[in-house]
Amino acid sequence: MKNNDNNPLGLENKLYTIEEFGSAIRNKFGGDNHISNIILGELFLAKYPSYSCRIKKPENHINQKSCGCC
């Protein structure tokens, strides 16, 4: 699979729940099995906030300045 600049992780072009995102990260890179997919997804987003555009937002979501989608 070829990655491009807009999708370096090679994820499907869809919105993910935080648990689905964490699962996709675990499948792509691996991860400690003692950490839940939710925590893994949150840790990844804390390091790379630009990927928060891939996460489904709750109705009470507060926009962040660190990502380009909000």
Helix- and strand-based class?
mainly alpha
Query: What does the main sheet amount to?
Result: none
The overall strand count is: 0
What average pLDDT do the residues reach? Answer: 79
- Run of helices and strands: HH
Tally the structural domains: 1
Oligomer, anyone?
Answer: single chain
| Tally of separate helices | 2
Distance between the termini: 29 Å
> What characteristic shape results from the CA principal axes?
globular
Radius of gyration: 12 Å
Assign a percent range to the helix content: 25-40%
As residue ranges, the low-confidence spans are none
| Strand fraction | under 5%
Q: How would you describe the overall organization of this protein?
A:
With 70 residues, the protein is mainly α. The protein has one domain (12-70). It is 33% helix and 0% strand. The protein has two helices and no strands. It has helices at residues 18-29, 37-47. Helix 1 (18-29) crosses helix 2. The longest helix has 12 residues, at 18-29. It is globular, with a radius of gyration of 12 Å. The model has no long low-confidence stretch (mean pLDDT 79).
